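Moderator note: this is an archived Q&A kept for reference. The question asked for a predicted structure of one protein chain; the sequence and the answer are reproduced below.
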Amino acid sequence: MKIGVDCRLSGIAHAGIGRYIGNLIKYLPLLAPEIDWVYFYRDKNQIIPDLDVESRLVSVRHYTFQEQLQLISVFNQAKLDLLHVPHFNVPILYPGKLVVTIHDLLWHQQKGTQVTTLKPWEYWGKYTGYRLVASQAIKKANKIIVPTQAVKKTLSKYYPKSEEKVVVAHEGVDSGLLTFKDRKVKKKINSLIYVGSLYPHKNLKLVIQALQKLPTWKLTIVGSRNVFQDQIRKEVKKYQVQKQVKFTGYLPDKDLAQKIKTATALVQPSLSEGFGLTGIEAMALGTPVIASDIPVFKEIYQNAAVYFNPHSIENFIQTVNSLTSRKPTLNQMQNVAKQYSWQKMAEKTLQVYKSVL
């Protein structure tokens, strides 16, 4: 039996999706060494050493015409029994058995030129392409993996015929971060941390505005420099909270774990999310999470987070000010974090493969 996995988006350069793919492909050959695994990478630096798999380099970028035109022959030449594309970007004419991971349907829900830095004509062209590719991937897939019940519900709303094909496989806590969970650190007073991308739907603008009325609080923003970070920097200047906000850029796991552990709380103000991985990582490291009260966070974080209305600055301020009396216990946080494991996710994914074959 030969199973291929598209690994072109693996690695830390691709944020949460990169972590998902990296952990999945690490566990699969350990769980099922009898299967012939074929991993398709874009860069040799993505290759995980010492795995008993066949690694193939494919110099085709994601979200391109070349992806649609060239990858079909690449996958066909490998003579796969099954292909797993761990994102929506499937070559729509691929004829073989297929498993797809849909992490969220954010761009179905959040659309329009206000959510992009592209010119309108360029954005709408790409958006049309996205909807076509995603729809065909969902239609053609033998099975669809999603990270939460909330995403399953959303997917079933847009694609009701796909509901019977959908399997929920929760994401996990990264072992690289957990290496540092038992190290004792001193918590900083009144310090918030945000980890992730800075797209408009992440709603970090609300936190920036709230800092005006939280003058004793500091915010550390961890994420790669891009156009959206530049927009947040403008917001920081606009609301005159420069002394309260620090941008670190990308941090390796060791430094990221240290930052999270020393923070008073991690903030998750997002309006839409597929899972909420950084919140689970914070809980595993013993740091409380302040999260927007959207369904996906309540599903994943359960009773181990403090929730607020993501459309109300005042409610966020009240939540921060009452954190001392409302924050969950360390036991609550770690009990929730223990429910999520990359190995369990890989085991569930392997079951999906076998059900298709």
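Archived answer notes: The chain is about 40% helix and 15% strand.
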